[in-house]
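Worked example

This section walks through a single chain of length 243. The input is the sequence exactly as stored; nothing has been trimmed or padded.
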Amino acid sequence: MAVGRWLARHEAECQATVERWMLGSMPVPAAVVAAVWPDPAWRGRLEHAVIAPTDGDGRFDPGAAGFLRGVGPNGRLGVVDVDGETCWLDAATISIPHPVRLDDLDGLRELALELGVEQGIQQLLREVHHKPTDVEPAERRLTEFAGGCFAELRHALGRAGSLGFQLRGGYAVCRALDGGAPVEARYWLGVDDPSWEAWTGDLVWVDEEERQLTLGQVGPVAWSEGVRMASLIYAGRLDEGAE
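Given that input, the structure is written out below as tokens.
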């Protein structure tokens, strides 16, 4: 029993770590990937992830992205590139890009189907939301997902929790990194009696010092993750015609 619980915690920690790398498109030493590869829990989350080599400044080359398929005896990472060719990466660091930052996301999705691969993290199948070109940059809140009615506040809170989002001060929250800076998206659900009827509010973003950002200041990853969170919770609202 104790071993089983430890394995479950270990797998959850591996999942959370790899997803954190992806949400921040963080540079990860190739040596670290090679070191943890023999562990089935790590390999199950890393294998088939789309990775790309990064330069000394942490920037990755989308054109060199490919599916991680293995680690060679010399520690080099083997990938299948967008042309379906197998190659070895010599970069000291790699990135697991957030899907919103992949140039040919549809092409990679098609290649994944052709190869018959299943990812251990939600990368290619993750919902992606691009910031509209006509967004008002000076605005500080997105109202698109406001006014969603839940018969009871606990239903909204329960839906957010079941989807994996944290709850704090009446908000569902999620964090991401854009350009190395942490950003938190917050979607208002409410703080009234859990048995009362509730309506969702606005979606906002704040920086690490709790300063609310304008929509123009929100980067592509934080935007995509915030809208993804709000849209998933909002989808559980009562039908507009329901009594």
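What to look for: Residues 149-234 form one domain.
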